[in-house]
Structure formats: structure tokens, C-alpha cells
Amino acid sequence: MSRPKNQNYKGHGLSKGKEREQRASIRFKTTLMNTLMDVLRHRPGWVEVKDEGEWDFYWCDVSWLRENFDHTYMDEHVRISHFRNHYELTRKNYMVKNLKRFRKQLEREAGKLEAAKCDFFPKTFEMPCEYHLFVEEFRKNPGITWIMKPVARSQGKGIFLFRRLKDIVDWRKDTRSSDDQKDDIPVENYVAQRYIENPYLIGGRKFDLRVYVLVMSYIPLRAWLYRDGFARFSNTRFTLNSIDDQYVHLTNVAVQKTSPDYHPKKGCKWTLQRFRQYLASKHGPEAVETLFRDIDNIFVKSLQSVQKVIISDKHCFELYGYDILIDQDLKPWLLEVNASPSLTASSQEDYELKTCLLEDTLHVVDMEARSLRADSPCW
Amino acid sequence: MLQEESDLSLIIAQIVQKLKGSNLYSQLERQAWASLQRPEIKLESLKEDIKEFFKISGWEKKLQNAVYSELSVFPLPSHPAAPPEHLKEPLVYMRKAQGSWEKRILKSLNSMCTELSIPLARKRPVGEQKELLNKWNEMGTDEPDLSLFRPVYAPKDFLEVLINLRNPNYENGDSLSFRTHLGLIQVPLKVKDIPELGALGRSASNKVINKKQNMGPRKQDPNQREGEFPRNDSKEKFQDKGCTTGLKHNNPRLEQEKECFVELGLNIGQLGIDDSTQVPPELFENEHVRIGQKVLAEQDSAAAQQYIRQGSPTALRAELWALILNISSQPEDVLYYEQLKTNVIQHDLLVDSLIYKDVKLTASNDDYYFVFEDYLYQVLLCFSRDTSVLSHFAFNSASPPKSYIRGKLGLEEYAVFYPPNGVIPFHGFSMYVAPLCFLYHEPSKLYQIFREMYVRFFFRLHSISSHPSGIVSLCLLFETLLQTYLPQLFYHLREIGAQPLRISFKWMVRAFSGYLATDQLLLLWDRILGYNSLEILAVLAAAVFAFRAVNLMEVTSLAAAEAVLADLSTLKVMPLLQIFLFATVT
Description:
Chain A is an alpha/beta fold and about 375 residues long. Chain A is about 35% helix and about 25% strand. Chain A has three domains: about 25-85; about 85-120 and about 200-365, ATP-grasp fold, B domain (D-amino Acid Aminotransferase, Chain A, domain 1, 2-Layer Sandwich), CATH 3.30.470.20; about 125-195, Dna Ligase, domain 1. In chain A, strands 11, 12, 13, 14, 15 and 16 form a six-stranded antiparallel sheet that branches. A four-stranded parallel sheet of chain A has the order 3-2-4-6, with helices on one face. In chain A, strands 7-10-8-9 form a four-stranded antiparallel sheet, with helices on both faces. In chain A, strand 2, helix 2 and strand 3 (about 45-50) form a beta-alpha-beta unit. The longest helix of chain A has 22 residues, at about 285-305. Residues about 1-10, about 15-20, about 175-185 and about 375-379 of chain A have low confidence and may be disordered. The chains are: A alpha/beta (about 375), B mainly alpha (about 575). Chain A: GO terms for molecular function: ATP binding; ligase activity.
């Protein structure tokens, strides 16, 4: 294989002739120092490369991807852990846009009933461009609570609740740069979403579900659902009275960790199995089956909605963390999709779950088979 | 014959007496009066017609359930001349030991009081009352300073007392023989002497066994169970015989156990085994669920108790337990609970801080139960003010502590029971309530269920008595089973200074709550309700040791043995019990 002349091109996975037959290990690279590192290091035949070494497998973070993906040449068997434009699914404003478009398409093609299956995201408006549409909707439903979320941030940062237009008018004034200054600072995009006021509570606490979906390719759409996951509990008791209290409403572990009540030993998580048992003893097994079928529907529809938009590169796969909220009628709502779900473990149980999750992910990706060449030893 | 008859009439009289004071009686009376309006009631055959009416309308069933409930709780008939202490505890040395243990607890409580200068009880100022009322549903968010409080006692303190129990009339002799008991408990109690239970189990099981004969060979895959067992040859042995005759064993004890727990036999379907994903539901599970629904429709306590010996389906468990414990949420019960809540709001007790501390130390730190923290306060705080609990002391060897109004020590007119329900919580007490939160979400119902479970079962786990379900008997049963069936293991552990009871005691005192996974724990508690006895705790403890015997034989210290047995959360209860009871060959 001749090396391309462009200096910016970095080849990965390239081997020089004979070396290929002799290569018996998979070179991996990652910057994450948590469960993932443990799993990768323990995998037989996998070797870590650092810095500028060539790799066959890279669990990268999204910023690296943004900067380097387009300049990187990857050999056939090489795998990387993100899709180039994953943000079509994971940035809140794009996801909403794609879902809305998909819903319209479904309605045209298959009728209202089929389209209604897409009604798992609360009414959302992109700010600031859809501000006027939002105000219209706001006025139609006075008194309900709305939640404002920055599109691109995570771990609960920048999120707040509001009930009056006045609250966000103030906020707009604050965030908008004044006319005197140059607009060097890009205005951050937000979405305003209808807040789910009747979440299902356990022990008086609000929680959301984190479920993992592994997508191996978009065309054709090949996705895997991990059987386990967890329910993340808010540490304080749910009430709509204190919408300023981040700790009550936002169930991100990152936010809970900073709550004064938080004790690291507690973990404030239940495995999905335990959650299912609890629901089954309260509502019966059929209700639980229905709920989980509806949740599966969320995965399918959301992936279908971005199927044609995401650049399906065969080198890419992605492990998404879906955040689902259940309301009191046992209806699941999609809160968001994470392209880089946290792989840091908050407790022993959590560590085991994430380890198994990552191991299974690597089994599915199956680097071992891809590196296989006819003339090299089978293993 | 005559003795039996007079015993029976004595029991009947006592139950009638008890029920006359109950709500059910006045309801029945009211119903009888109301029924006079009905056309089918004729004056000539008034008594028969009313009886018929009761039968059809389901009131007879309710009465049956109430009687059955009383029978379950009622202690065995004793000599009419026996003093009330004998009902609590017939053996003098046990009574004495319980008395001195109680003195120690009270001393500890009093000294904590004086040290911290906190009164045992005080009336809350109005502001504080309002605040507590507002926070009633989220008391878990409160973080009072509890650093100075310590639990009054922990299970291991209690164990030390039990170890030192001796019957002064029993001379063991110093010479060691094969009869020497190797364990820590050195009292000569007869373990497993429950003839009624054995008979009940046997007659019922005959019907069950006949039915199951037609279901064909049980699908078993030994690798699916936790661990590997050489099941295949024992399968042939038990296939066509009833399990009571299955394994002819020299030792009568295991035979007795097997008789007791006949429904757990290998031939009989169990929830916890035969509802696993590898077993097609048509084989057992579907039918079992159908029967369960029928039992609930009939509202028959006795049938429910028999049914639940094979385990309860998740969806039916809450109702089944309520039926067996004869709890139906009447408006009066809700009112009673509200009254208790008012008592909590108005007065602050020292015991409350102990409860807080216990919840924070145990349930709040538990991976499963931390969510239910608020419910635990709502139940336990009310529980400590519930004077109706005092009635159970009639058959509990313990006695409620007394406190005297300041300055009037010794004067009976100024004595009150403290805490009002007479029960001083110890470290881990809140774990009795935590699993119930999985099943019941309405506070007054949750409360009732817990209270009933306590006065039927849990109190026996922390009072010194000779009752077969008492903790002393359970310890002795555990040690005896272990010594009889795993003598090598027992001897080895004893030699390295790791007496098995030191490890298993805490499991039994808490009825395994917090040690097993919740679904397994609930399956275990199903059987406690079904057999109306706690002996299954001792059997399970022995079964756990048997299961981990190989690892335990290799340890060389108590700490290492503890480590082998530290994590029980992956264990499956029913296979363990079955193996131990019906398939262990020595």
C-alpha cells in the first residue's frame, strides 16, 4: 500500500507487508481512564498504544473526532467508537428536528396511528429560532412548567425550569451579547421543552432510566440493546413547589453528586432488573411488558429517524446512553440520547454492570474476527 | 380424650373471648340485624337462615379467617393452673436470662439518657410540630446530629448472652463424646418439635403429590442452578416416591425437617425454581398463578397459607400476605394509623433518635432499600407509639420496660411503659420493615402488615425463649444440622476459631433481610408465612454453609470465613433449601 502524499493524512491500521501476518495483537487507544481502560487492558491479545502510535481500535472522545476524523485514513478492519455526525441524534435540537421530520413522513406514508408512535418526546422548541412558536404554545397552556436545556452540554449543566415568560425574557437579556460588542461569542442554542409534571415516583423520589443501545451501522440499521441498565434516583423528594431546586428535578448523577445529601456509598441507582421487579409487584407483569415494549419502540423510532442523515461509515460504531423518563401512567418519554455515556463507576454494582456492558460491546464489534486474515493464525 | 376435648373447649372459649372484642364481631352483629330485612330470613328458622346468609355473603369466610389467624398466633394450650409467666416462657432459667438481659438494655438506655441529658420523652413545641407535619413524607431529608447516639445493642451482643445460657439442672459432664455439641449454644432444647405442622404438611402434600405425578419428569438442568450439583442420580431416586420416603436416613432430624417442609420437596413445583426462564411456564407457573388467583377470589386465609408454601407469584404477593395475616384496610385501621401519626407529631421520644440512627446506618446505605427511607420512618416512629403491640407480650418471654414519672420511682401508679409499645429497637431493626416497602405503598397498610409480622414472627428473633421458632432454638437447630451433616466442616471451622454461628447469627436475627437479593428474600418470607414458623431460617443458614463448604474448608481464620460468606446476594434460596433438605447425602 503506498502512503498518500498529503502530510495531514495519518494512516492507521496500515501495515507494511509482512508485518500484517505477524501481527497477533489488537492495538487499542483511548483517553478514558475508567472502566473502559480496565476492560480493554484485560482483553486477551489487546495491546495499548499511546500518543502517536498506530491503532486498530480507538475509543475516542467527540472533540478528537470533530478535529481529526476527516483527515484520518483508516484501514478496512479499523474501528472507532463514534459516527462522524452523531450529533444528529445526540444534540437535543437536531434530534427533535429529525424526529419531527420523521413523524411527518410516517404520517404521510402510514397514517396517524403509526405516526402517533413517535409521540414519546415532549413538545420541544428550539431557541432562539422557534421562539415565537414556543410563545404560542406557551400561551395555549398557561401555568405549566417548562424546562430549558442547552443543546450541547451534559451532566445537567445550564438547565433550569420556568413557568413564566418573564423568566426567560430575563435570561435572554443576560445571555445575548449587547449590540455594542462584536458577536465573537456564539450564542448558545437551547431547547425549551414541556416539563413532565407527573413523573412516576418511587419512595417519593423522581428517577430516570439509563439504557444502552449499541449501533453497529445505520445502513443497514443494526442495533443492539443491552439487557441491563439502571434507574437513577434524585436524592430529594419530588415536589413542584421548588422549581429552583436543581437537586429535586435533575436526576443526573453528576448533579446528585453535588447535592448536600449525597453520600457516595449510596449510589442512588437501582439496576433495571430490580426496577422491573418493583413495578411487577405493583402493577403486574403485563404492565411491565407493555412498558418495556414501548421503550423499545423509542429506540427503534429514534434510530430510524436519523438513519438517512447519519453518515454511515463502516469503521464506526457507537454506544448510546438513552435517558428515559416514566410518567405516572407508565408512559415512557425520551429525554435525550448520549453519545458518550459515562463509563465511570459509582459503586461496585455499577462497575460490574459497566464492565459487562463494555465487554459485550467489544464482543459485538468483534475486532478479533476483523483482524483475521487468511494466512494468520486463527484465534 | 377428655383432656383433649377440654383443651379444645378452652381454646374455643379463649378465641371467642378475643374475637368478641374485635371489630369483626360488631360488624357481624350489624350484618345479622340488617339481614332481618331480607325475605329469606324466617322467624322459625332464624339461626339457620342467618348462618346461611353469612355463608353466601362471605361473612362466614371472614370469620373463618379471623379464627384461623387467632389459631396461628395462639400459643399451645397449657395447664389451667399455670401462671401467666408460663405462657410467656415455661422454663425458669430462660425467663431469668431474659430478665437480666432486659436489665442490661435498660441500663444502657438510661446511661445514654443521662450522658446526653435528653429526656426519654418530651412534648414538642407547636412550631416543631408544624414543621414535622410538613416534612412527614420526607423525613429522610432531615439530618439531625446523631453522632452521640449509639444503638442500644447489636446482634453480636445478644449472641454473647445466648452463648452463656445454661440450664442449671442439666449436667453435661466434662467428657467429650460423639454426643457433645460442638457449637456455641449449650442448652438442651428439643429442636423441631412441631407435630401439628408436620401433620398439616403431610396430609396436604398427599393431594399435591398425586396431582404432580401426572406432570411428567421435572425439567432440570443442574448447570442452571447456582453451582453444580450431582443431581442426576438423586433425580431417579425421588422421581416416583414421595419425598418423605425418598432418602432413608439414619438421622431422624433430617426426616423430621423433611416432614415439616414437605411442600418444598423435589417433586413439587416451586416458585424460585420452576419459574426460571428455562422452564416452560405451562409446566408449573401458569397453573400456579391461576390457583393463586382463585385463592384470592375465595378470600380464604387457610388456603392462602397452604398455597404460599410453594411460593407466591410477584403480582399476587401483596394481597396474599394481607390475606394470610388477615389484614384488611378498614377505615378504622387508617384512623388508628393517623392517630399514631398525631402521637408522633406531638411527642418526641428518645427512641426516635435511635430509630433515625438505625435507618441511616442500615437501610439508607443499602443498595436496594435506600429509596424507601421515608416510609421506614413513617412506620417505625408510629410503631413505637402503638400500645396495641403490648398485648403480644402475653406470649413473648420479654416484658416491656417500665419508666417512672420523675421523682416517683417505684410507685406503680406513676409507671408507664417505655417506649409505649414496649419494644426497644436495636441495630438493624429497620431491616424488618424495608422489604415490605416493596409490596405495600400505602402507609397505613404497610404499617399494619409490619405490625402483624412483628407480633407473629419477628419478636422471637430477639428474645430469649424456648419456643421452637425462638432465636435460641434456631441457633441450636442450625448448629445441630451443621454438625450432623457437615461434621468435617464444623470441626474445621471450630478449630480455626470460626464458630459457624458467629457468622450466621446476624443472618437469622434479621431474617436474612439485607443479605439476600430482594426477590429471593420475599420467596423465603413466603415460606415463613406458609409454615408459620421461622425454622426455615436455620435450615437456609445451614444450606448456605453446605453450599460454600468447599471454599470454607480451605480458610484458616475467622476473617477469611467471613469473607467467603460475606456476599449472599447472588444466592437462590429455593434450590439451596431443596438440595439441603432432600438431596444431601452423607
